Amino acid sequence: MTTFFTRGICLLLVAFCFEAVRGQENFMAYWEPEIEFSYDVVPFYSHKFSVEKRSLVYRESPRFDIVQFDLAHFSELKVLDNQSVALGIQYRTRAPFGDEKDEFRLTEQYSLSFKSLNFRTGHRFRVEQRFSGRPVEHRFRYRLAVDFPLEGSRLDIGETFFTGSWENLLTLANTAEPSYEQRFSVEIGLLANEKITFSGGLQYRLDNYTRSAEHNLFILSSASIEF
Question: What is the three-class DSSP state of 15?
């Protein structure tokens, strides 16, 4: 019964994202795998490192073009049981794959979460400064996420879970008009053991929708390893 329910959720998510972008102009699809490593320095302070690749898999026709690599680090400090602040640094390289310049990014983050029954709700606020050879871009992000186990009332080793999120983004720069973006994500995850988690899903991005909307679909896959 649980397996049938999980497969049903996956099929519904795929259908939802496909219908959201089918027939849209300015549509592209990407595959974005990520691997993440984290460890606790002390119980209330941790480090997180990640490597991420983005490949273009559809633009007018199927293809497979690598467009960028990301290297990122976050330092997170818990200020309460359900609240934390973090500082991040990220380097994005695009030069080997096209004409766009590499990017360096700083991130300040505040997170707040609540748990009710077997549901967990999270609020994340981010401010970013993006440096890429153009005037500095300032981006403001808010994400609302919910996750819950798909088997029983708590997540045990070997069981799956669902994560869904909505994120709103605003980008400001001195030489450009404000840019707005919406992101909707759905993922299914597996707690492989106490230290390793796998997840995969889809993310639909509606970018620059106040001027010339762009519709992008991301195929997500990730592995998270704790030390």
Answer: helix
